[in-house]
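step 4 of 6: structure.
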Amino acid sequence: MKVINIEDIPFEEVKGFEGVRKQVVIGPSEGSNEIVLRCFSIDPGASSPYHTHDFPHLIKVESGEGFIKDADGKNINLRAGKYVYVNDNEKHSITNTCSDILSFICIVPIRGENPR
Amino acid sequence: MKVINIEDIPFEEVKGFEGVRKQVVIGPSEGSNEIVLRCFSIDPGASSPYHTHDFPHLIKVESGEGFIKDADGKNINLRAGKYVYVNDNEKHSITNTCSDILSFICIVPIRGENPR
């Protein structure tokens, strides 16, 4: 068992995701080799790329406001407390529309954190 | 893609867990067949049983205060914002020590939500 304070987890830049930082809160370093829980912080005005991959996302917005673009190009508003499920191979991007950090936890199977 | 408001998710009693209710926030009904995100609410003074199972827990405390008992019987304090990783087959229970609901999200592989 491991109890974790997110303040102790370093931020990592995310390659190809400008204005986006990641903390791996629960992952292999904590003994979790099946599921990984990351926390993403998106700067005001920044977005994750409109992209797809062969693993799902289980998301909970922690703070800030923005939107997620779905596979049809439709933008759906996000704010703290909203949950989102993104299917495997479903195109998506997340944009921060507020003046503070947009932060959200994003849970993936291990293949999503160590892409093959 | 599915955007979910937790207020729309019904509470379920948890068999054998008195004073504990569960919401399945992201699971098979949302299209997630690999990982399930549940939210648990524990009443003041109540606990989950001291138990074990063959799947891990990735936990984030959402509100309230309490403790988690580890496999050695040691109690580790929990409060909003703490994350916990519980290994497969590691004995644990969670107790609410405050006067409000203790709520936490608890992520499991699908076999943890539909035990075999």
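step 5 of 6: annotate
 - Chain A touches chain B at residues 1-6, 25-26, 30-32, 34-35, 37, 56, 58, 60, 68, 70-71, 76, 78, 81-87, 90, 92, 105, 107, 109 (CB under 8 Å).
 - Residues 2 and 31 of chain A are 8 Å apart (CA to CA).
step 6 of 6: archive
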